[in-house]
Amino acid sequence: MDVAIEEVSELARKVTVTLPAEDVQKELDKKYTELRKEVNLKGFRRGKAPISMLKKSFKDKVEPEVAEKMVQDTYFDAIEEKKVDVIVHPEIQETIFSDDGSFRYVAMVEVKPEFDLQNYKGLEIEKPNCDVTEAEVDEKLESLRRSKAVLRTAENDHEIVMDDIVTIDFQGFHNETALKEVRNENFSVDMGTGYLGKDFEERLLGVKKGESILYETDFPADFQNPVMAGKTIEFKVDVKDIKERIKPELDDEFAKDIDQKYASLTELRTAITAELKQEKEAAFVGDLNDRIMHKLLELNHEFPLPQRTVAYEIQEKIKQTEENLKKAGQTLESAGINKEQLVEHHRESAEKRVRGDFILKKVAELEKITLDDKDIEQGYNRIAEQYNMSVKEVKSYFKRREELMPFMAELLNEKVLNFLRKAADLVHAEETEEASKSETPQDA
Q1: Does the residue 287 lie in any domain?
Q2: What letter would DSSP give residue 128?
Q3: What is the rounded distance in angstroms from the CA atom of residue 377 to the CA atom of residue 407?
Q4: Going residue by residue through the chain (444 aa), what tens digit of pLDDT does each one get?
Q5: Number of domains within the chain
Q6: Which of 191, 229, 371, 385 has its CA 20 to 30 A from that of 252?
Q7: What is the C-alpha to C-alpha distance for residues 227 and 79, in angstroms, rounded to an integer?
Q8: Statement to judge: residues 105 and 6 lie in one domain
């Protein structure tokens, strides 16, 4: 095998791999021998047709299959031989069976950017607060009261308030055109949930049964419904029915109704406090990771990024949007979403993800952080538990190198973040505020 590397740009490389004729012929003969057992040629019994006849009839089928197999079998060995530190999958641009019997393919790849990592140990990070406030307990109790409420049809003069359930017809308009995707009849709005946006609900406050409202609202670019995201939508809303939510009194009897193990409201509040604290502590690691990555990106943002990798991240986000629209029977075009604008919308976040990944890999390199068998086994066990699979099934899925490499990269990033958390200087919000005040020059 002959491997040649050409530098196309700062991060792009052209890898040309040539396989000798004897290796190529072995693969072709093997494929034609397999094919001979499967096909019938006129005048020959199954399995008895000469290879020369098969080549005439099936060359266009066999050569692409053999080419794909030889690329898969040799690509990783080729880049390891030349010590090319590539990222993501290659773009195979050429596959050629030459007249001399050899086979050549060209792979366009991108390599990791080289940069000096700044201040990654001892980062001063504000420690997420895991304390539970009385207001948070009250909010949870209100949620429980809502769940135990009974519904009563409101009087005709009743004005809509939060916690009501309102039945409406609505039609959305964009640039004076009715949007068929933004309309509904007998639609139920649970006031206070924010399903249609906080602004939408606030417009309904004070409206009575039988009344209509007409108003415009601006939806943020990241709004959950892509049809409305980033647009100004005019709504016409007809209120058809209102039901009041009659919530139980907040007392000892209410606590017992939640669970007989609670003898009083005080006991219920104590249990809720413990539950909320446990939830906050469970979210602590993810929150801390986000803060560490934010700080690292602030300190290390000036190095080139491989554009194919960024493009792949953007495409994954667009794919998610397309899948969500498909569930609603829509496409980007029918939803009025411009794909080029969507690409630019996702570019910044994609670049942050790619940049962050390189920073973590750099930390791993400098600190010699690697995965051992225990790390990988724990990763398998976690996935098995998460998806209710056996560990054997999980390992079977990750048997191919293409699936295993991203999985191991994710595990390594987790191990690096664990190192960074331990190395960080965690400070409470109060300490951060005091430090900020001490650095502020006093008025003369």
Answers
A1: no
A2: P
A3: 12
A4: 999 999 999 999 999 999 999 999 999 989 988 888 777 777 666 666 777 778 888 888 899 999 999 999 999 999 999 999 888 789 999 999 999 999 999 999 999 899 999 889 989 988 878 899 999 999 999 999 999 999 999 999 999 999 999 999 999 999 988 988 888 899 999 998 888 778 889 999 999 999 999 988 888 887 777 788 888 999 999 999 999 999 999 999 999 999 999 999 999 999 999 999 999 888 888 889 999 999 999 998 889 999 989 999 999 999 998 998 888 778 888 777 888 989 999 999 999 999 999 999 999 999 999 999 999 999 999 999 989 999 999 999 888 777 788 899 999 999 999 999 999 998 876 555 555 555 544 443
A5: 2
A6: 191
A7: 44
A8: yes
Helical packing angle, 134-147 and 265-299, nearest 10°: 120
217: domain CATH number is 3.10.50.40
Range of the domain at 188: 150-246
Nearest-angstrom CA–CA distance, 370 and 442: 49
d(Cα 355, Cα 349) in Å, to the nearest integer? 10
**Domain annotation covers residue 328:** no
We report the CATH number of the domain holding residue 63 as: 3.30.70.1050
Question: Is-contact 255 264, C-beta < 8 A?
Answer: yes
Of 88, 111, 134, the last residue of a domain is 111
Same domain, 201 and 101: no
176 dihedral zone (left: phi>0; alpha: psi -120 to 50; beta): left
Strand 165-174 to 177-190 pairing: antiparallel
Q: Are 115 and 275 contacting, i.e. CB atoms less than 8 angstroms apart?
A: no
Number of H helices and E strands in the chain, helices first, is 12, 11
Structural domain contains residue 201: yes
Does residue 411 fall inside a structural domain?
no
Same-domain pairing of 106 and 155: no
For β-strands 124-126 and 425-427, DSSP reports them as parallel
Instruction: Please indicate, yes or no, whether residues 9 and 84 belong to a single structural domain of this protein.
Output: yes
Nearest to 264 by CA among 275, 254, 277: 254
Which residue, of 203, 218, 246, is where some domain finishes?
A: 246
